[in-house]
Amino acid sequence: MFTLIDLPYPIDALEPVISARTLTFHHGKHLQGYVDNLNKLIAGTEFGTMPLEEIVQKATGGMFNNAGQILNHNLYFTQFRPAAVIPSPEGVKESPLQAQIVRQWGSLAAFQAAFVTAGATLFGSGWVWLQADADGALTIGQYPGADNPAAHGLKPLLTFDVWEHAYYLDYQNRRPAHLEALWGIVDWSVVEERYGR
Ligand SMILES: [Fe+2]
């Protein structure tokens, strides 16, 4: 049985980038719904005792969709921290991840621009990911629906949710503006830790 993760910050901590109202629905209703759905689907099946990532790699249909959405949201919600305490991109200390980003994109700013473009141009609902292969090489992935890097043998590092439920209450149709604003609350220490895992 899976349970809803706790947010590692107060419900209003990410304002104004993500409002308490959006988080209340996104975490408390949407993610809770995926958790409830998956628990019903796996009950009494071979998937009932599997770790989430294994279900994502083996399941299809509704089971894949609900498991994928839990994995995606768990990584999404735990990669943010309140804007007041996030270091600026310039202040992020030298790190293997930052060095690899600069090697591949030239600068953190150039990577961020490419990432936002990938999210803005993803048609319909889905996720944009920074992902790593077994050698540590990075790519930006556009995934529709509940799909994600873990389902394709890649390491999920950082993700922006481009489902409308992630931003519509605060930004309406302005998806690119929402994605740009998210840089102000990304906790790079979390992303770095995922890269080193
Ligand atoms: Fe979402």
Largest sheet: 3 strands, antiparallel
Q: Give the overall shape.
A: globular
**What's the helical proportion of residues?**
40-55%
**Main sheet: strand order:** 2-1-3
Give the H and E element order: HHHHHEEEHHH
- Terminal CA distance reads 25 Å
In percent, how much strand structure appears in the residues? 5-15%
- How many strand segments? 3
- Ranges with pLDDT <50 over ≥5 residues? none
Alpha plus pi helix count? 8
Q: Roughly what is the average pLDDT, rounded to an integer?
A: 94
Rg:
16 Å
What small molecules are bound in this structure? Answer: fe (ii) ion
Give the oligomer, counting copies of the same chain as homo and different chains as hetero: single chain
Structural class: mainly alpha
